[in-house]
Structure to design on (911 residues):
């Protein structure tokens, strides 16, 4: 007998529905699977038949054919197991065909019949809702992840017998067998907001760096911190997500989708409820950074979507890896092309970099640094120009002296965040109805509109331009940062003070070249 | 009489020089050995024709063998013509044009390759110091070079990065003269950053080297070079040196040669001044006022107008300076009080923002420093040398 079960597969962060067709007919006993399957998807037949046997089903020696349609798209992963298993039971008439109507099945099967975690539940459930599917049965571990999608019923199952019982039960008893999973995203995000995040009050001193972090957070600007070892560069970087505004529901879905595709959800946390903070090792490979695989999986920069990508020891990163950041920094997404096709992942992150100013770390304190000028230049020049070109704020940290360590504590994250939120609100109002979200996104063409200057400020900017030898790009960046500083101060107009402060944080050209 | 000298010299050039070049181009022989050979044989030409037996009296067997091989491959006339075509001159101890001051030092180099005008009798001061100098060092080196250049005193130095190059460049910019002594061939520019200076020097002084053209810059070539730097000068000024600095080798040699040594004093907290301060304790004269140095050499110090004023705003402050060597800052009228306070808290040495804040009077402790500092930069009174360090603009725009 023939049956069709609905399931889903991933293509990047997008999902599409897959019809799992199972035919059980008389003939020589065999089990064949078709539909452009990868190795692990093909292995499904062993898992499913053994799982069904161990779950107590008696499978007659028949000819089983499974087709995953559309047949021309390459399918990866193990999440089809449950659908195939249910399809076989349907073909063997264990329940009425109506029971699986408008229902999507997703999950991997263990040999004992348990339903295991799957990749990409969120994007698949989202697509199912869009296509008018009524309910989804997903692994218990991923249920909360799928449940955030409105307009679709999501139930978590932990064993295939549960699923069978559910399908055989009367409508009224069903709720008891597999209860509906409910998740209110907004309240969840509110609840999770700021929990367990390290606080800025643990950072002593470093006034410039703290201020730079605040400006960066308010305008989503890219930040570079230079300073000796132990000055607190990573400490500050780790605290930046805590002063960023909490994820919106839409952002949460985006970040969870990426994490889900990468297979990172379900383990403890179903949803990405906090701003991501990714800190790859300097030896990270190009594929790990931007994404890779036959059908490319998201890389670190996509996992940092809507959050912070922290590159510690910036000069130690391979040049090709740093250069690969150029497209994502410009376009907020990354396209990876492989034999399996080319996939675009979102990657709108805030770049935070940290580095020592020279091999020993104490330049320009000539009393401590004994690196030669050439060594220092060589070290600094390892940071490629294109990356430096995309840094909005550059700040130097001072070595912490012993009195500073015991000194009074700095301002708390909550207080900083309050100001950041006000600045964000001004930006939301300013950019309403445009593609821009933050000051950092302002396009060169719109600079005059959003960063208008008065006569006095124009003259000031001209003087800055000339005396600090700014490039056109640096000029624009400075204006954007000044816009954020003005927003933080609650001013509609950019004042001279704001321009001056923005200039302080520009990457000093003479220092880098 | 005079005609005869000229005639003699020309004949000497024609006949003797190709052999002198041969002798000075052989790399595996010390200066003492060269001099001994010439003494033994009488002239370079005689050395050339003397043969192995005589050579062995001054050289080891191995060296003599090498010299034999070298000589067989060497075409004296052709090589000499090539040297002339490259605009490189050679002067030896046997030549009357050999710099007199250098001739007097113990173990004077036998031959000197040069480009430009050979050093004569004019007063000269060697300005030496750290390659990675501080703003203070570069400020002093520049002021010193400028003053010497303007007062008709030649600046002798090694064309290195840092103090050497800065003082030489300043002297040339002030219209003065400078001699650059290289640790490589005179046709090799080292370090590359100083190419502009390297190209200007032959026109406003001289490039000198005891190494044959084509010799690359090797670490072991530099101590002998330092000997020539001090040997060419009447006095040596050390601008900045660490406790263990190569500059101190120059000082030892200068003392051997009986040259007056001056050291520019620095603060005891600056590692880059440790060498200088120690020299002062050991008896070097502290250079408190560059004009005194000029006067000590019998010249009239000429201050003149600054060739490169820092900025319109800064010029007023600088004009009133009496003590040309120090980097003291005059009050600038019209500056808002908080800016003036920040300016006073700055120094020629780079200071971090936190240090600057500490240096402010109590009532200004809470101001927004970043904006003030940038304002000073725009006014041309300060320089942001790294994202978090500032110093007073000591020199003109670089």
């Amino acid at each position: 007998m023939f049956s069709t079960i609905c399931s889903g597969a991933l293509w990047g962060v997008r999902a599409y529905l897959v019809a799992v067709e199972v035919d059980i007919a008389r003939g020589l006993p065999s089990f064949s699977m078709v539909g452009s399957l990868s190795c692990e998807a093909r292995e499904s037949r062993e898992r499913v038949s053994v799982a069904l046997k161990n779950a107590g089903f008696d499978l007659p020696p028949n000819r089983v054919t499974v087709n995953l349609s559309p047949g021309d798209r390459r399918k990866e992963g193990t999440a089809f197991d449950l659908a195939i298993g249910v399809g076989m039971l349907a073909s063997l008439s264990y329940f009425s065909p109506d029971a699986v109507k408008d229902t999507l099945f997703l999950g991997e099967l263990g040999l004992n019949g348990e339903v295991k975690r799957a990749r990409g539940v969120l994007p698949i459930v989202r697509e199912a809702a869009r296509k008018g599917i009524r309910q989804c049965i997903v692994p218990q571990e991923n249920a909360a992840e799928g449940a955030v999608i409105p307009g679709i019923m999501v139930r978590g199952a932990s064993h295939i017998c549960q699923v069978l019982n559910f399908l055989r039960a009367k409508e009224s008893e069903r709720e008891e067998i597999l209860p509906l999973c409910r998740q209110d995203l907004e309240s969840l995000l509110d609840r999770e907001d700021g929990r367990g995040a390290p606080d800025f009050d643990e950072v002593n001193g470093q006034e410039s760096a703290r201020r730079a972090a605040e400006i960066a957070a308010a305008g989503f600007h890219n930040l570079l911190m230079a300073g000796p070892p132990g000055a607190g560069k990573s400490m500050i970087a780790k605290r930046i997500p805590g002063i960023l505004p909490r994820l919106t529901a839409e952002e949460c879905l985006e970040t969870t989708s990426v994490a889900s595709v990468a297979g990172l959800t379900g383990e403890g946390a179903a949803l990405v409820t906090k701003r991501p903070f990714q800190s790859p090792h300097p030896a990270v490979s190009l594929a790990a950074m931007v994404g890779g695989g036959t059908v490319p999986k998201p890389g670190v920069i996509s996992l940092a979507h809507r959050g912070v990508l922290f590159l510690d020891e910036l000069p130690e990163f391979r040049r090709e890896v740093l250069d690969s950041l150029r497209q994502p920094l410009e376009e907020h997404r990354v396209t990876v092309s492989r034999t399996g096709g080319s996939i675009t992942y979102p990657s709108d992150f805030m770049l935070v970099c940290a580095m020592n100013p020279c091999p020993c770390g104490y330049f320009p304190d000539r009393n401590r640094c004994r690196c030669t000028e050439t060594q220092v230049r060589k070290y600094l020049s390892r940071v490629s120009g294109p990356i430096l070109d995309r840094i909005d704020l550059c700040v130097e940290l001072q070595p912490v002296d012993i009195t500073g360590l015991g000194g009074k504590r700095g301002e708390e994250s909550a207080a900083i965040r309050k100001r950041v939120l006000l600045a964000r609100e001004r930006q939301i109002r300013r950019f309403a109805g445009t593609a821009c979200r933050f000051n950092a996104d302002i396009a060169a063409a719109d600079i005059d509109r959003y960063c208008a200057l008065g006569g006095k400020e124009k003259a000031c900017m001209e003087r800055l331009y000339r005396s600090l030898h700014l490039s056109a790009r640096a000029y624009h960046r400075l204006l954007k940062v000044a816009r954020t500083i003005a927003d933080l101060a609650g001013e509609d107009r950019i004042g001279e003070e704001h321009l001056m402060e923005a200039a302080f944080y520009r990457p000093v050209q003479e220092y880098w070249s | 009489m005079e005609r005869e000298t000229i005639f003699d010299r020309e004949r000497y050039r024609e006949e003797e020089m190709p052999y002198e070049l041969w002798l000075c181009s052989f790399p595996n022989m010390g200066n003492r050995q060269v001099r001994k050979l010439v003494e033994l044989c009488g002239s370079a030409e005689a050395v050339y024709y003397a043969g192995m037996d005589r050579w062995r009296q001054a050289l080891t067997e191995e060296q003599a063998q090498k010299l034999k091989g070298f000589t067989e491959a060497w075409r004296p006339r052709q090589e000499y013509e090539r040297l002339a075509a490259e605009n490189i001159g050679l002067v030896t101890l046997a030549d009357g044009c050999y710099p007199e001051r250098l001739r007097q030092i113990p173990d004077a180099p036998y031959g000197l390759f040069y480009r430009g005008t050979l050093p004569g009798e004019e007063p000269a001061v060697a300005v030496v110091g750290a390659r990675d100098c501080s703003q203070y060092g570069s400020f002093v080196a520049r002021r010193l070079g400028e003053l010497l250049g303007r007062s008709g005193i030649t600046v002798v130095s090694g064309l290195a990065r840092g103090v050497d190059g800065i003082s030489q460049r300043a002297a040339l910019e002030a219209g003065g003269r400078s001699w650059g002594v290289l640790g490589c061939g005179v046709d090799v520019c080292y370090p590359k950053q100083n190419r502009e200076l390297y190209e200007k020097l032959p026109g406003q002084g001289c490039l000198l080297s005891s190494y044959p053209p084509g010799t690359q810059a090797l670490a072991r070539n530099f101590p002998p070079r330092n000997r020539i730097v001090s040997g060419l000068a009447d006095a040596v000024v050390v601008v900045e040196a660490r406790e263990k600095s190569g500059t101190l080798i120059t000082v030892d040699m200068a003392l051997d040669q009986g040259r007056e040594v001056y050291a520019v004093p620095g603060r005891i907290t600056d590692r880059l001044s440790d060498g200088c301060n120690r020299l002062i304790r050991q008896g070097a004269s502290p250079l408190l006022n560059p004009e005194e140095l000029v006067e000590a050499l019998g010249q009239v110090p000429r201050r003149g107008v600054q060739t490169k004023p820092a900025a319109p705003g800064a010029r007023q402050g600088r004009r009133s300076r009496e003590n040309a060597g120090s980097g003291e800052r005059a009050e600038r009228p019209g500056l808002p009080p908080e800016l003036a306070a920040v300016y006073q808290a700055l120094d020629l040495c780079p200071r971090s923002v936190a240090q600057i804040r500490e240096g402010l009077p109590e009532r200004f402790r809470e101001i927004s420093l970043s904006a003030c500092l940038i304002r000073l930069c725009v006014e041309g009174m300060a320089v942001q040398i790294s994202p978090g360090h500032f110093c007073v603009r000591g020199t003109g725009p670089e």
Notes: Chain B is about 45% helix and 10% strand. Chain B has three domains: 2-80, 124-296, 312-392. Chain B touches chain A through 32 residues (CB under 8 Å).
